């Protein structure tokens, strides 16, 4: 078979898959036209056998890469023993997982859920209840402060405080009780806090916002404002946490410890949805039997996989890789920051193996650059029109980081 006929057959197969998904599945995404069937480490393969470097890593759900042998072994073992009990009964995996995750976070206790949005909802519910029972806020008067440009998930309450019109429009009436302040602006937060404020919810780095890193000292200032006002600091580390930025949690870059860690994505190792909050006993004890829960949250398969993830994180190897390869990524990307040539970046933001690349005005759109990268064997996705987000699995090698940057440089120049 010539390479020509291979690519012809391939195109037809890819087109058929895409037509089928468009015919039978809701159009709530606009994927790149690639149909993947295999993954291993930092690489994925499409139905035609073409390989791509995965530089999105499931929005950081795949920090350990596709099919990490330790995670697969643990999952296979647990799959054949016990997968679901509901929380009506105990299972032998939840205790060890909970203890390991509490120890990793330095908190007393955890509450396991499945998706990120559910963990955020859990943090919001715990905060409101803590406000009424512990802080003494009058019933139904609690407010929670959130950030402009936030992304915390897709539930009705969470989109109620999103400022992304596409995510929010025509889903009202919206859940009240949220106030939005400018991300990174300490004064804006200080002014918004009042005696009925129970929590401040923020991403230590805004992922969907385009890897937006707040000014140095901001997280410490948020911590201080929360301490002074008796307000809970909720860190949504669903995308920024679990080694992505070179630390277990992005808050550690400012030596800040939030009251509640919100975790998801990589907690399930890319195999399974696993999320959780971690906090101290005096906060979590407001949750009583029946007042919150989930059929699947804390199930033995999730707990076994989550426990292996926590063990891997406690060894520090992935954090070290993210730091080391992240500085290489930053160094290699820096020469691409140049304006006025029509083929550069107007700015980059890099923290660990996580980068937001702003395409210079007048250059190709983010979507166009993503498609060009795809043709060069690199998968990444645009956000907000002209930003490309780079978040490869942390198992990527130094050579592969070089390939990735070469592909970006080339894709900025020509189709
Ligand atoms: C992805 C994400 C969520 C939502 O997680 P889901 O598993 O998609 O519900 C929440 N917060 C942040 C910061 C995220 O990146």
Automatic annotation (TrEMBL):
Keywords: Aminotransferase, Pyridoxal phosphate, Transferase. Pathway: Amino-acid biosynthesis; L-proline biosynthesis; L-glutamate 5-semialdehyde from L-ornithine: step 1/1. It is an enzyme of class 2 (transferase). InterPro entries: Aminotrans_3, Aminotrans_3_PPA_site, Class-III_PLP-dep_AT, Orn_aminotrans, PyrdxlP-dep_Trfase, PyrdxlP-dep_Trfase_major, PyrdxlP-dep_Trfase_small. Transmembrane segments: none annotated. Its cofactor is pyridoxal 5'-phosphate. Its EC number is 2.6.1.13. Belongs to the class-III pyridoxal-phosphate-dependent aminotransferase family. This is ornithine aminotransferase. It comes from Ornithinibacter aureus. The gene is rocD.
């Amino acid at each position: 078979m010539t390479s020509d006929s291979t690519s012809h057959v391939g195109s037809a197969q890819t087109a058929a898959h895409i037509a089928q998904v468009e015919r039978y599945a809701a159009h709530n995404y606009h994927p790149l036209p690639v149909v993947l069937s295999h993954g291993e480490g930092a690489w994925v393969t499409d139905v035609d056998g073409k390989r791509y470097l995965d530089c999105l890593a499931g929005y950081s759900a795949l920090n350990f890469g596709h099919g990490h042998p330790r995670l697969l072994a643990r999952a296979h073992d647990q799959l054949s023993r016990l997968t679901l009990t509901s929380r009506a009964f105990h299972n032998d995996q939840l205790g060890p997982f909970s203890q390991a995750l509490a120890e990793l976070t330095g908190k007393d206790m955890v509450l396991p859920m499945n998706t990120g949005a559910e963990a955020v909802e859990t943090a919001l519910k715990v905060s409101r209840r803590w406000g009424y029972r512990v802080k003494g806020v009058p019933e139904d008067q609690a407010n929670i402060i959130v950030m402009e440009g936030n992304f915390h998930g897709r539930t009705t309450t969470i989109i109620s405080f999103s400022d992304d019109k596409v995510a929010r429009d025509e889903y009202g009436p919206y859940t009240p009780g949220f106030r939005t302040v400018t991300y990174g602006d300490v004064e804006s937060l200080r002014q918004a806090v009042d005696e009925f404020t129970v929590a401040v919810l923020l991403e230590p780095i805004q992922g969907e916002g385009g890897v937006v890193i707040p000014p140095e000292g901001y997280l410490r200032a948020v911590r201080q404002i929360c301490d002074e006002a008796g307000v809970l600091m909720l860190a949504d580390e669903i995308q920024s946490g679990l080694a992505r930025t070179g630390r277990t949690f992005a808050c550690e870059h400012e030596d800040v410890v939030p009251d509640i860690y919100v975790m998801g994505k990589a907690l399930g190792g890319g195999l399974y949805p696993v999320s959780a909050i971690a906090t101290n006993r005096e906060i979590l004890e407001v949750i009583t039997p029946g007042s919150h829960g989930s059929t699947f949250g804390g199930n033995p398969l999730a707990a076994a996989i989550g426990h292996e993830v926590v063990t891997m994180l406690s060894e520090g190897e992935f954090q070290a890789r993210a730091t080391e390869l992240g500085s290489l990524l930053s160094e290699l990307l820096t020469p691409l920051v140049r304006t006025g040539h029509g083929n550069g970046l107007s700015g980059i933001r890099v923290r660990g193996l996580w980068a937001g690349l702003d395409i210079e005005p007048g250059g190709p759109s983010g979507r166009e650059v993503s498609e060009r990268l795809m043709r060069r064997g690199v998968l990444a996705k645009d956000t907000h029109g002209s930003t490309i987000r780079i978040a490869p699995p942390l198992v990527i090698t130094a050579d592969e980081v070089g390939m990735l940057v070469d592909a970006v440089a080339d894709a900025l120049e020509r189709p």
